[in-house]
Design the sequence.
C-alpha cells in the first residue's frame, strides 16, 4: 500500500486508503447536476442531504464510476508491484543507497503536480489534467522499466509522480462535480474497493514476474492497461458542466509548490550525503521548503488549528507514517528472514483488503456523527501495527506476525483516510474543491516525502546501507546486529508519527458552530458565506 498514495488512490479528496455534505437543491439529474445545496447552512457538520434516486452504479453514473475504479485499480496495481519488486531493483541496479529515493521521488514530483492540477481543474475542469496525468504516469513506467542505472530508475519514478499528482486531484474534482453529496462517501468507498483485486494479485504477479522474467516487466507491462480507463471515462467526463469564470491559474500557488518540491528534493539529497558538503543543499532546501509550504497549506496546519487545517495535517501524518513503514517491510523480510520476493510482497496483501473494509465501514450513515472519533481510532490502530512489525527481527517470532499487523493497519487507514476526504469536501465550497483537494494531497505527498526520507536517513545511520539484497538467511544478518537495528529505528520512529496523528484527530471539529473559517495561506478555505460541500490516494 502506498498512501495517493496515493487509497491516497483509494480515497478521493474526492485523495485510498475513501475519503458528506449539505442538502442538494432539488433532484439530481445526472453528472452535470450541481452537488451543492443552494440553501445549505455553511456550518452544518451533520447535513441531511436529499436521498439520491440511484446509486453510484445506476444508469446515470455507471460509466463514470467504472472508469474511476479502473484508474484507481491501475494505480493500485502499480503501487503493490513496486513494493514487491523494489528489493530486486535495488540489487540488480546496485542502488541500495538510493532505495528510499525510489519511493520519495514519486511523491516529491507529485507534490508539484498536485498544486498544478488543482489550479488547472478549478480553471478548466478535470478532463485535461486527468488525461494528461494518465499519459504521463504511463511514460514514467516506461522510463523506470528501461532504466540501466538506479538514478535513471529514480527519474522514472519522478515522472510517474507527476502523472499521479495530476490524476489524484482531478479525481477528487470529478467526484465533487459529478456526484451529489449523498453519493460521495459511497464513491470513495468504491475507490478503496478498487484496491482489493490489485492488492491480492499484485504482489503475487509482481513477485512471479520478477523471479521468472525480470523486474523490468513489472513496470513495462502496466502501460498497456492505460487505454481502458481512458475509453470508459471519456463520454461521462464530457458531460460535466463547463467551468464558469475567466480567472487564470494562480501562478503564485504553482510556484510555491515547485519551491516545496525542489526544497524537499535538496533535503533528501543532503540526507543521503552525510558529509559537510551536505550543509549547502540542506540550507537551500530549507529556505525553499519552509516559507513555501507555510503559504501553500491552510493557515494553522502546522499547529493543528481546529477544522480544515487539522484535516489536512492528519493526512500527511497518517499517509507518511504508513508508507515509510510499508516501504521497508519487503526489504526486511527478504534480508533479515530470508523470504522470497513473492512471499515478502504477499505479507502486505491483507492490508489492502482491510483498507477497503475500513473505508466501507466509515461510509455507513449511522457512523456519520462519529467521523472525527473514527479517524482517531484509525491512527491508534496504525500505531500499534507499525510497532508490531519489528518483532520479527527476533528469530523466534513467526513472520506471519507482519501480515497480521498489516491487516490491522490497513483497516485503520481505511477508517482514517476516507473519512478525512469526506470532511475536506464538507468543509470546501464547490469553487474551491480543486485547491483544497490539492492541499490535502500536497499534505499527503509532503508526509510521504518527509517520512520516507527520514526513514532512509535512519536506515543508513544505523547501518542499513550494507544489507544484502540478495536475500541472505536471517541467521547471518541477525548475528551482525547492525541491520536489525536499522529496521527497528525506522518502525519505531514511524509509530511515533502515527501516535502524534491520533492526537491531531481530537482537533478535527471546527472551533465555532462547525465552521471552517480559518484563513488559508495558499489553499482556499470556505468562509461562512459559502455552503459546504464534501470533497475527496493515488497511491493509497
Sequence:
Amino acid at each position: 500500500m502506498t498512501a495517493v498514495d496515493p487509497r491516497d488512490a483509494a480515497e478521493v479528496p474526492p485523495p485510498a486508503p475513501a475519503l458528506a455534505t449539505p442538502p442538494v437543491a432539488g433532484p439530481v439529474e445526472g453528472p452535470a447536476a450541481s452537488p451543492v445545496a443552494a440553501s445549505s447552512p455553511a456550518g452544518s457538520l451533520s447535513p441531511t442531504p436529499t436521498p439520491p434516486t440511484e446509486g453510484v452504479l445506476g444508469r446515470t453514473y455507471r460509466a463514470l464510476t467504472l472508469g474511476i475504479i479502473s484508474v484507481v485499480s491501475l494505480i493500485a496495481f502499480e503501487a503493490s508491484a513496486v513494493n514487491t519488486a523494489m528489493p530486486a531493483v535495488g540489487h540488480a541496479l546496485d542502488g541500495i543507497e538510493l532505495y528510499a529515493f525510489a519511493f520519495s521521488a514519486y511523491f516529491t514530483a507529485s507534490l508539484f503536480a498536485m498544486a498544478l492540477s488543482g489550479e488547472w481543474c478549478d480553471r478548466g475542469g478535470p478532463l485535461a489534467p486527468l488525461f494528461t496525468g494518465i499519459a504521463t504516469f504511463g511514460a514514467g513506467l516506461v522510463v523506470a522499466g528501461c532504466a540501466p542505472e538506479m538514478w535513471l530508475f529514480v527519474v522514472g519514478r519522478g515522472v510517474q509522480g507527476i502523472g499521479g499528482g495530476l490524476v489524484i486531484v482531478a479525481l477528487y474534482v470529478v467526484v465533487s462535480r459529478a456526484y451529489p453529496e449523498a453519493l460521495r462517501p459511497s464513491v470513495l468507498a468504491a475507490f478503496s474497493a478498487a484496491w482489493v483485486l490489485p492488492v491480492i494479485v499484485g504482489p503475487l504477479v509482481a513477485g512471479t514476474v520478477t523471479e521468472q522474467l525480470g523486474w523490468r516487466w513489472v513496470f513495462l507491462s502496466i502501460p498497456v492497461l492505460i487505454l481502458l480507463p481512458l475509453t470508459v471515462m471519456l463520454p461521462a467526463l464530457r458531460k460535466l458542466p463547463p467551468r464558469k469564470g475567466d480567472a487564470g491559474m494562480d501562478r503564485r500557488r504553482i510556484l510555491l509548490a515547485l519551491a516545496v518540491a525542489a526544497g524537499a528534493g535538496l533535503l533528501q539529497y543532503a540526507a543521503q550525503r552525510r558529509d559537510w558538503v551536505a550543509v549547502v543543499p540542506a540550507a537551500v532546501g530549507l529556505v525553499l521548503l519552509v516559507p513555501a509550504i507555510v503559504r501553500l497549506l491552510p493557515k494553522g496546519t502546522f499547529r493543528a488549528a481546529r477544522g480544515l487545517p487539522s484535516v489536512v495535517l492528519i493526512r500527511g501524518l497518517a499517509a507518511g507514517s504508513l508508507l515509510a513503514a510499508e516501504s521497508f517491510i519487503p526489504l526486511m523480510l527478504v534480508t533479515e528472514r530470508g523470504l522470497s520476493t513473492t512471499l515478502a510482497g504477499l505479507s502486505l496483501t491483507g492490508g489492502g483488503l482491510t483498507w477497503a473494509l475500513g473505508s466501507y465501514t466509515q461510509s455507513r450513515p449511522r457512523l456519520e456523527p462519529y467521523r472525527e472519533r473514527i479517524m482517531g481510532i484509525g491512527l491508534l490502530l496504525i500505531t500499534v501495527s507499525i510497532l508490531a512489525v519489528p518483532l520479527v527481527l527476533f528469530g523466534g517470532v513467526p513472520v506471519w506476525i507482519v501480515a497480521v499487523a498489516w491487516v490491522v493497519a490497513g483497516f485503520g487507514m481505511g477508517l482514517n483516510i476516507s473519512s478525512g476526504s469526506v470532511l475536506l469536501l464538507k468543509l470546501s465550497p464547490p469553487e474551491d474543491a480543486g485547491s483544497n483537494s490539492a492541499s490535502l494531497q500536497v499534505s499527503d505527498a509532503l508526509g510521504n516525502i518527509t517520512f520516507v526520507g527520514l526513514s532512509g536517513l535512519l536506515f543508513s545511520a544505523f547501518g542499513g546501507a550494507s544489507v544484502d539484497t540478495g536475500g541472505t538467511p536471517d541467521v547471518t544478518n541477525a548475528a551482525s546486529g547492525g541491520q536489525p537495528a536499522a529496521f527497528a529505528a525506522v518502525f519505531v520512529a514511524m509509530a511515533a508519527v502515527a501516535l502524534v496523528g491520533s492526537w491531531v484527530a481530537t482537533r478535527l471539529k471546527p472551533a465555532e458552530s462547525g465552521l471552517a473559517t480559518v484563513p488559508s495561506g495558499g489553499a482556499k478555505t470556505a468562509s461562512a458565506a459559502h455552503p459546504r460541500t464534501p470533497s475527496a490516494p493515488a497511491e493509497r
The CA atoms of residues 120 and 249 lie 7 Å apart. The chain has a mean pLDDT of 75. The radius of gyration is 21 Å.
